[in-house]
Amino acid sequence: MTTVIILLLVAVIVIFAVKDIRINLVTRPTFRLFKKVLPPLSQTEREAMEAGDVWWDGELFSGNPDWQKLHRFPKPELSEKERAFMGEQVETLLAMLDDYQIVQKDKDLPKEVWDYLKKEGFFALIIPEEFGGREFSAIANSTIVSKIATKSLTAAVTVMVPNSLGPGELLLHYGTKEQQERWLPSLAKGDDVPCFALTGPEAGSDAGSIPDTGVVCKGMHNGEEVIGLKLNWSKRYITLAPIATVLGLAFKMYDPEGLLGDKKELGITCALIPTDHEGVQTGERHYPLNMAFMNGTTYGKDVFIPLDWIIGGEKGAGRGWRMLVECLSAGRGISLPALSTATGHLASRMTSAYATVRQQFGVSIGQFEGVQEALARIGGLTYTLESARLMTAGAIDLKLSPSVVTAIAKYHMTEMGRTVMNDAMDIHSGKGIQVGPNNYLAHGYMGIPVSITVEGANILTRNLMIFGQGATRCHPFVLKEMEAAAMEDQDVALKEFDSLLLQHILFAGSNAGMAFVHGLTRSYFAKAPVCGATTVYYKQLSRMSRGLAFCTDVAMLVLGGELKRKEMISARLGDVLSHLYLASCVLKRYEDEGRQQADLPFVQYAVEHSLFCIGQAFDGFFKNFSNPVVNFLLKRIVFPLGNHYHRPSDELAQTMCEHMSKPGVFRDRLTHLCYVDENAGTGVMENAFLAMIDTHEDFKQLRKWQKEGTIAKNLELEGAIAAAAEKNLINETVAERMNQANELRKQAIAVDNFAPGEL
Questions:
Q1: What is each CA distance from 133 to 188, 189, 190, 193, in whole angstroms?
Q2: Contacts of 387 (CB under 8 A, 6+ apart)
Q3: Are 353 and 686 in contact (CB under 8 A)?
Q4: Can you tell me whether residue 223 is helix, strand or coil?
Q5: Rounded distance between C-alpha atoms, residue 720 and residue 698, angstroms
Q6: Could you tell me which residue ranges the Acyl-CoA oxidase/dehydrogenase middle domain spans (predicted)?
Q7: What is the DSSP letter of 310?
Q8: Under a CB-based contact definition with an 8 Å cutoff, are residues 367 and 19 in contact?
Q9: Is 130 a catalytic residue?
Q10: What pTM, to 2 d.p., does this model score?
Q11: Lower CB density within 10 Å: C or N end of the chain?
Q12: Which tens digits make up the pLDDT trace of 394-430?
């Protein structure tokens, strides 16, 4: 037996060590198989793969993340001028907003708000100063939108859109000098309001299927005949379309007469068109889930424009899809994550206050364990949301366009926002569902599905984009192997593939071996960049990175092109990658902010939640993998001792609730983006919370006297306070303070009422 084993080992060594033997026996058959199972890529898919940058997602796919590299990424911070804008212009704007009036009555922002947004450059956050813009960072853009969203989702979306995917962003990256000089100053001053039209009745998430056309032809422009485009389009769901003065338009470009060359189909193209141009029609307005931000339709039939209205000029013809993928990636990493983070900040601050103020059975509902479970989830996910917001926007400030990371942020942060809002509504109960001026949750709750559906519907993002792009883009060898397989010179391709294959085999073998060792030792020997309470988390994430890399290789080998259609399988591997990223963001923030001791329970909750989700995703992957033998082996390699990841403990949740329910530095840091309006529901709730905290011991003693029979048990609070004062158990000052707190409490738990006919 020993001799047989030795001979087999020698044979394997010879096969892989001698290049000619290896190519004939291993590489050539594998190359043929690879080309056979290679999933076919459309042109739009290929451009999406090639667009953007691989960043920390590449490290997570490597099986051996460099955690020191993570810590070396700059800490995202606002500049002095950005902080000044937050303290002055943003605060002034927030004081101007009456969201109930905007949404329920006017269905629009007031004229003075529109004027202020234009005058103070809220639509020019990303435009360079040389063109009159603010030239703010991505983290500033994100922070501004988040802060506004805690007061008014309508105002936040209105500010968000011109600074994400739109003419401004496209002009900055791809516009000609003439186009930039023509449009950017007027956009910066607010003289022009932009919108961008991509989605149509037959093309939503599959933007590559847009039916809108631009045909190259000759036509009249400014009194002379020029070569241009005859455009036909029908678009819907276009934010700012009802009031836009300049329309960014995506369409498919054709040149049937060969006026520009031999190519008949040039591909998706983007152009910039004044909305007062002949033939441009601003259509009907939409009303997205009661939100008052401007959203509507735009049409055009046989609209002629000159070629130099194409973004980038004639050279931009056919480059529109790449433009959109790269710019959408940046916008996806800023705008919707900002809205979701705002949900967390608002829900954490207001729900922790409400759970303290609202009483049932003589005690604050925050003392009920069922409420604590939901409140802790709100706090833990809010910490994760803010961590991911900072890190993702920070990547964009590094001049990167990390398409996989921003897809992760878009999907998971909007879903976390949905969970947080649902928990907040559950705790507020009747207080949360009665719409009125004092309800700070209702409009955010209505708007959650908007974030879920736009910039790539969440189902598409999770099932196709995160892993579909991640497995190819982030893997150290797959994209290179695909490029080798596509080479025309087969001899050169085979040599290139041989080199990559050898590295790929070593890579997969190393990940399989280390995943198994880490599984047996509970990652005891894995490296961590820090000591202390978070050490174990770095080790476990490294272990799961090994498991992801190995399972991805096996899935692509076994399923080949079928993996593209096995969305439930690929999405679960995408969930593993996503939670590796989210947990990384949490650990990065914890280090950046100096390992604040009060933050540790929230860090532990956030990372343990992500590890639990990773374990659940792997369980679903193993259970549903088509090949039972491979399924068995994968599970035993990644989890040789079983999957022991669990939900965060009840004890940890209770500790978090204690932190959230105390006024002070930690609560302010956790919810620092929440705008508390003294003249609205948030101010009423905050004042009641502070008053009840201040009188907590007094009310505790009052309940004790009632329990002992010193004061009648059946008295309401006002009567009990009066009885205690009458018996000289408390003095007049204490009684007055308790009555004031109780009055604030009643105001806070009250809901809005309307007279008959008022609505």
A1: 5, 8, 10, 14
A2: 582, 585, 586, 588, 589, 606
A3: yes
A4: coil
A5: 12
A6: 195-293
A7: B
A8: no
A9: no
A10: 0.93
A11: N
A12: 999 998 888 899 999 999 999 999 999 999 999 999 9
